[in-house]
Every structure is written in C-alpha cells, then in structure tokens.
Amino acid sequence: VDRFRNGEISYTLSNHVIIIGMDDLVPSLVEQICKSDKFQGSYVLVQSTEDTEEVRSRVHNVLDREYEPRLLFYHGKRNSKEDLKKLNVDKARSVFITGESGEDDRDSMNLEATRLIAELRSGDGQEASLKPLPMAVQFEYQTTFSAFQVTDLAGRWREQIDFYPFNFYESWAKKLFVSHCYV
Length: 183
Known about the structure:
The protein is an alpha/beta fold. The chain has helices spanning 2-5, 26-35, 52-60, 81-85, 106-122, 142-150, 155-158, 168-179, and strands at 17-20, 44-48, 71-75, 94-97, 133-138, 161-166.
C-alpha cells in the first residue's frame, strides 16, 4: 500500500498515454484525454517528481469519478533513463511532456526527456517497423518554442517520435485572438 501511495510501483502497460511532469495544465489534460474518443479505454500514467499523493489529489479534484480507475501515478525523474524505461514508452500510444511547476530549466529538461525516449525506442533491438510515437512537448520560453518551429529534430529522432512542440501562451493567444477574431 505504501509503495502504491508513493508511486513506486511500475506497471506493465501497452496502448497507454503517458504524461511526464506536473504543472497546472496536467489535471485538465488528463480530463481531456479521458473524455476523448481517441484514447477511450487507455490507461493514463502520470509521472512526476512531486509528492504522489498531492499529484493524485490535484488530478482527482478535476476529474469525474468514472475515469479514476484509468489513472496510474508513478514517482520518477524525466531525465532518468531507468525511470522512463519503467513507463513502457515503447508500447505507449502517446506521450505528453509538460515538466514540473516552477523549474528554471524546464525546457532543457523536457528536451532531454525527449532525447531519452527516442533513444529508448531505438535501442535494445527494437523493431524497425515501430510506428513513431506522438509526443507533445511543452516549452515554457517563447524563444525555445520558436526555435523548434523553424528547425527539425535529428533524423534518428524522427524515426522514433512524432514531435509536437507547444507553448501554453502561444496556444492561448491563438484561441483568444485568432479563433475569436479579437484583433
């Protein structure tokens, strides 16, 4: 029970959705995933370095009770290859990397996690026909986000992942000003 509470149990999953990090965006993201037809029936695994009970509480405060059995929580670091390996990224359906709240080096840590996941998917005799894994990676700073809008990932990464960079502020600006024609 203590290992479960502390997020120390690793699960053998496939066709699941992984969220790496815990910030204010994550509870709403979990809710959208659970309600989406695209991810119907998929487990949602949330990995964070924050206290697992607190993460679980923040997510459950937003989520309908019917979706709670699909949620799993794992305490781990996104820059640890061993911790990422326990998430079964090679069998995942999709990955979202948000990072942790209040980190100074969030963008570089998110990029390092992306690199490690691409490496995990390409190593240890993985099948060459493995479909690229959709990965949405949040960048806090506009400069980092802009850099990835005009540059591409390394070729070996592209074989393993479909990289979708996003910026919270950019997304909100588009919704407010473009979608609603407030300009």
